[in-house]
Design a protein that fits this description.
267 residues, alpha/beta, Rossmann fold, seven-stranded parallel sheet, 8 helices, 9 strands, globular
């Protein structure tokens, strides 16, 4: 997809962070937008920043709900009539040792990070097929390339997104659909994901805010830089998009040291 002018893009998690940055950059390129987030106030703020000149629709949606995602897709078809670019971006985090993680919290992560992506592809696939072509970008993470302690749920969800995206791409090629499927692997991005993460401290000497600050110390890339990396990947037709400082080297480490990389990766 060389240019975004007069195209229609759906972005989940558009009320802040990477989703908002993607919306702003696409709008500057003349792309019409259907923006979703569970946070209506965040969506309204994004809309205010976008200004005029393009068709923008806002949708308060919980991506972990199949019914809501179906309704979202119906609204987009009614209001925009087509879909060229789908970016399944919404995501959450959980910081906890597996033996201290509740099943409820683990399901919360999987329902949003993995099932939200599946629902997005399932709900919007027919409209994209009807449009005649399209590009799907599913947001995984560098933690979909390798694993670290305290991230059993998050890593599982992001590895699942990676595997699902690879299969979806292969099936699109098998069926001869003119739809490209890419998976993006952000490294630490300066968003609210750590602030909004559910954290279980395994050491009584730790402080919750200090732990969040420690997590954020690994976030080296701005949302704007991440959005640029993703959209440049789309322009170049990539199916594996590295995003942010450190993403390329982490991908290389995971490829060259598929077992022993844990000796280099410290949290």
């Amino acid at each position: 997809m060389k240019n975004f002018s007069d195209k229609v893009a759906v972005i989940t998690g558009a009320g802040s962070g990477i989703g908002r940055a993607l919306a702003l950059q696409l709008a500057k390129n003349g792309c019409h937008l259907a923006l979703a987030d569970i946070d209506q106030a965040g969506l309204d703020e994004t809309r205010t920043l976008l200004g005029a000149g393009i068709n923008v629709s806002l949708h308060q949606v919980d991506v972990s709900s199949w019914e809501q995602m179906q309704g979202f897709a119906d609204e987009v078809e009614q209001q925009h009539g087509k879909l060229n670019l789908l970016i399944n971006n919404a995501g959450v985090a959980l910081g906890a040792l597996f033996n201290e993680s509740s099943l409820e919290d683990m399901r919360w992560v999987m329902d949003i990070n993995y099932w939200g992506v599946v629902y997005g592809c399932k709900a919007f696939g027919p409209l994209m097929k009807k449009t005649g072509d399209g590009y799907i970008v599913n947001i995984s993470s560098v933690f979909g390339l390798l694993t670290v302690p305290l991230q059993s749920a998050y890593c599982s969800s992001k590895f699942a997104v990676r595997g699902f995206s690879d299969v979806l791409r292969q099936e699109a090629e098998y069926l001869g659909n003119n739809i490209r499927v890419a998976c993006a692997f952000p490294a630490g991005i300066k968003t609210n994901i750590a602030k909004n993460a559910r954290v279980t401290l395994h050491d009584s000497d730790l402080d919750l805010e200090e732990e969040r600050a420690r997590m954020e110390s690994w976030f080296w890339t701005t949302p704007e830089e991440a959005a640029s990396d993703i959209l440049n990947g789309v322009r170049k037709g990539k199916i594996r998009i590295k995003v942010g400082k450190g993403s390329t080297i982490i991908d290389l480490i995971a490829r060259l040291m598929p077992v022993k990389y844990s000796m280099l990766v410290k949290i």
